[in-house]
């Protein structure tokens, strides 16, 4: 009888300890959804959790208040190798899990693009290799390529367009969302702008009734003219400076640059073989106006 009671007490004690341990572990697992857990000094402890098969199911189901999974977190903070381990082991190579969206409709591929660490390109590459959808659109109507244009590198942009067949000119779901080319212009990502143009991005794409060229002109810094190279790159790839815009103070990009006396720097950016008809038409109009003014001065009817 005494032995039986002792056994019951031990069993009860074991159950209590196990419950406390599970509760503590669940609390610890939730910490994995905070940036602090992914700092270099915590990686060793983090690896213990991530390499424990008994925790895989719980880890796969973890979500924070914003709907992020541990893959959303890992994509921002760790290297290619650890992300691959998480996808292959915890995610069991589940493509649906890889493409789970958070409350903003963003997948782990997008959060990887937000990353500032040195492993960024490798993280994005392994996500794509394991089935991350490069054609995904978030709640705000932004495409993955728009985020890549704003926060990624030329290599990632080229990878998405060439290998994963993302349309470099794909329009976004809502008009308030900028195209990849305009996203790069707004973020002053010169190399990304040039890469997108090289990949045949439309130099005359529009956003909020403004052309890409008009937006590039607005982004030029006064006095220093920093950023004028973006406008020049657009012109070199066929941007139309005489495209009429509605609802703008200046009807065309050319009017804009003339007002701010930028014609000397920008006129020479227009290639002879690009927009020849537009340039000829503009010059004929100018010549006609000059001729009309001259005849009026001379009193010729």
List the helices and strands and how they pair.
Blueprint: H1 2-31, H2 43-50, H3 56-61, H4 70-77, H5 80-90, H6 95-98, H7 108-114, H8 120-129, H9 144-151, H10 154-163, H11 180-186, H12 190-198, E1 206-207, E2 210-211, H13 212-218, H14 228-236, H15 253-259, H16 263-266, H17 276-298
Antiparallel strand pairs: 1-2
Helix pairs in contact: 4-7, 5-8, 7-8, 7-9, 9-11, 11-12, 12-14, 13-14
Provide keyphrases for this structure.
elongated, two-stranded antiparallel sheet, 17 helices, mainly alpha, 301 residues
What is the gist of this entry?
The chain contains 17 helices and two strands.
Question: In words, what does this structure look like?
Answer:
With 301 residues, this protein is mainly alpha-helical. It has 17 helices and two strands. A two-stranded antiparallel sheet has the order 1-2. Helix 5 runs parallel beside helix 8 and helix 12 packs parallel to helix 14. The chain is elongated.
